[in-house]
Structure formats: structure tokens, C-alpha cells
């Protein structure tokens, strides 16, 4: 399945596609408003980019500094080369505490590692506590956005899901009442949980602590009530100094949702008296990406989702059409590193308009990387034959002034004379599936120029 | 386990790019006024109330939270004693927590709340309503200035900006997701 074939399913519902497009554009507009209110915002982007680049350039040293500090703080540090090892480590910690009730706050890394099915398969109850994540967990779906995991759903969908699973009144789709129902349902889970799993937004090498940003307070509630906290982080989450958080906390929420900051920016450095804290540091392909000069800048990503909110393709095709943990433009440059063949269509799910690059708070050259992945994919023979040969043909055609001149003439006459059913046949002309062709002009630019100027 | 550690570190060392400098982050200045702080906090669902005498919070709180039965606080005579050992079921019944905040940030309405001010780490999020008491002279303009004032982040600490909220259902803003349903800042 390619991105476009999966997107076809999504766009089949035109009203929902329009709604999805407009909703995300609204988030993009909120981002703009928040960004323009900070005069030094562009300086902050540059600083964030430089801090992340510096960190990657000394990643091994900062990882060791972070580990040493965390251990001195009484935190257990684990290293996982891949998803399988990560899941085994987490299960092992849970088992050593004879625990079966686990709450989990938002973590794209545990999605990437498919932790939930692994734990559930071993008899552990794992409850996602972010409201959006809980909704899609009940529906057995994957998140469709980095920070708005249930953005593909309408309130009627959530109402139906809660009626089925939480016993809310049938037909009740009031967001306020549904959120209250989720609050009551999840509160019982928070109070009963033995282990809390969280993601990590930032890991500070200088202090050995991790920072988690939420609006709901679900990470704090889960972690601070449970006996054991397991924080899973990719190696790219590191920043060198505590003061660097000044830069990143000013960028993250403004870029993500247009808020001045997330409600909770929580710093976990040492376990509470009598409790346990574990940090699992995960590679899972990241050091490989670090070794690709053209693509390593993708590791600067702070997972704000601004690139997807602005992307004209993401907004109209939905997160599930990417079939990768991280959708949108950033997902399209991360996924080929994981599986070139499987995700070969994603770098083509872009107009290369560059809007993603413009809004990225850490200045990742996303659209340039999309363009570069296309070349890598073509050289690896991973693009469809029809695309390869038609582009080869177009290249030759456009490079020859003579062929171009004749071709133009044929098209101008042909479009006038041929029947509409033929020129707009869906089988030959994908352009015309949802669009009209322009009126063919009477003359070409070259003809006009020869007559008028020369 | 140790072999994965060695492999990851070796790969990071082998694959990292040439070293680039770590920039110095300037203090960008900015508006540290009480007015700005109040306005921003209001825009994110919080509320500022001035108190004349921080030693006499009782009357203000009774007026703001007439229904609060179970209150936890190090600042006044509270009804629920809370410390690090307080069991979950006791914490879960707290209606109102009144805690001292340390630093206010005008640009985003956040208030630094270190572990030592919380009584119990879970109290600020498990309580139904949260009140933070803040000296107005401790308001700074930006997060840079806030971090510059922190000696350390202790074992645990949080910047709290407004009440718990979510927009996960069709982007409709709902106050009171899982943490405190409201946040009032008592400024003195």
C-alpha cells in the first residue's frame, strides 16, 4: 500500500477531509499568533537548532554524562539497542515488582516500539492516560498526529466510543461531559496503578533529569502516585544544560498548539523517598540516522507537530495514510531510515512547498530532505516503474525545445478537438479526477513573443 | 544490557558529525510586569487574586472556595495533614491544595513549584483545585530568567501554567482533564 492509496480512503469522505484540513489550519494559525508575539522567536529557533546540532556532535559524551548524573541521583539507567530490547526491559521491571496495573502517559517512542501489545500479551493492563491516546486505545487505532492523537475523530465518534466502553449516555457527544467521564474513568486507574510509564520531552545531561510536558497533568498524576516510574527516551532527546530548557520550553508549545507553554513542564530528577525511577535509553535506528549526513538533522526534532499542521498533503490525507508512528513531513523523512522499501512512497507525499521547514522550531530542512530521499529511493530502485519511465520521458521531452514546441502545439489543438470524455478520462489523466483542465491558449508564449517583441 | 550500551555509544561516536559550538543563550529581556502575568494567566484559564496579608489567607479562600471541605496546605490551618508518606486514598479526597509558588513567568503565566513546596509530589495534580501563593516581586519576564534563578530543579519540580486542560475531543478546549480543575494565584 502506498501513501496515495491509503489517502484515497480518507479523502473519499469529502466533508470530513475538509473539516480535518480546516481544523489543522486553525491550529497553524494559533501557532502563528503565538509566534509573532515573541519578538526573538527567530533567534530562539536558531539557538535551538545550534544547541541540538552541538548535542548530536558530542552525543556519545552527553549520553555518558547524563547516565552518570542520573545514576548519582539514584535512577536506574537501561540501554536498549532496539524496540524488542526496550520492551523486554520494561516488562522485566514491571515483573520484578509483581505489578499488573500500569498507566502510561504520552510517548511516541513506546508507540514506535509497540510496547502496549507486548505488555498486554504478557498479562499486564496498560492504560494510556492522555485523553486522545485513551480514545484511540479504546478504538484500537494508532495515533494520527504527534500531539493531537485523535484529531482524525469527530466528537460523535468519541461519544460512540465512550458509550460502548465507559457507559456514557448514547448520543451524548458534548466534549465537556465526555472529558468528565474520561476523568472519572482514568482517575480510578491512576489511583490503582503500580507502575507509571512516561515518555521524555527533554533529557538534561547536566542534571541527569528528564522533563515531561503535558496539558492534562496525566504524567505527573501517574508518576507521582505509582511506586515505580519508567521513562523511555530516544537518544536524541538530550540537551546539554538546564538553561537550554529556557529556549526549548519557549518554542515547544507555541509551535505545537499556539499556547505560550504547556500547563505542566515537569522536571523528574530523583525518585521520591522509597520509590523507584528507571530511564530506558533507546537507539532503534537513531545512530544509523546519525551516520547519514543528509538526514541526521531529522534527529533535532522535538515532536511539536508544526510541520504536519501546516502541510497541505497531511491536512488533506490524514495521519493514518502515512502508516508510520510519526506521520506528516517529519515522519516522511524519519521512516525511510527505518524501512526504505515499506515507506518508499512517503517522501513523495509532499508538494515540496517548504512550509514545514519554515515553521520547524529547530530548523530542520524537512523539504530538502524529502527531495534527497526521493533521489535515494530512485537509485535504490524503490519507485514504481510508471513513475520512473514517465519522469525519464518528461525529462527528455522538456530538455528538447523542438519536441516541446511540437508537443505544445499538439496539446493545444488536441484539447480543443478531442471529446471531453477522452481528455478527462480518469485512466489517463489523474489531474482531471477532481479538477478541470484549463482552457487551451490559442498560441504558445514563444509564438506570442516572436510576434509581439521581435 | 551492557553490550547494548557499548554498541550505542560506539555507534554514536563513530557516526556523529564534526563538533559544532554550543551557543550562549542571551537574556532577551522582556516584560516582567504583574499586568502581563495576570493577563497571560487569565488567557490560559487561571486567575490572579490579590491578597493584602499572606499570613491571613483563610477569609479569601473561604470566599473563593466556599464548598471546599478537605484542604491541604503548609500555609494555613488545613483539614487534611499531608506529607511524603500520605497514602493515595487520602490524597484522592483533597478538594483544595494551597501551596507556595516560587517564581512567576510573565510571558506564559507559569509558576515554579518545587517538590519542597508540595507536601506530596502528587498533591498539585490529584487535588480538585489548586491555589498557588506568590510574591509579586518574584515575577520574571521569560523562561530564560526563570531558569537563571533556579539553583537546581531538586528531585522533582514543575512549572504549572493554569488548570489541567485538554482539547483532544475535536479541538474543543475543556478545563479540568486529569489534574486540578482550577488554578488561582494569590499574589501579595
UniProtKB/TrEMBL annotation, chain A:
Membrane-spanning parts: none
Protein's UniProt keywords contain Transcription regulation: no
Record keywords, A-Z: 4Fe-4S, Electron transport, Iron, Iron-sulfur, Metal-binding, Repeat, Transport
Key word Nucleus present: no
Domain 4Fe-4S ferredoxin-type: 291-321
PANTHER family: LACTATE UTILIZATION PROTEIN B
Protein name: Lactate utilization protein
UniProtKB/TrEMBL annotation, chain B:
Residues of the LUD domain: 91-187
Residue segments, region Disordered: 1-22
Pfam families found in the cross-reference section: LUD_dom
Full protein name: LUD domain-containing protein
Organism of origin: Hymenobacter cellulosivorans
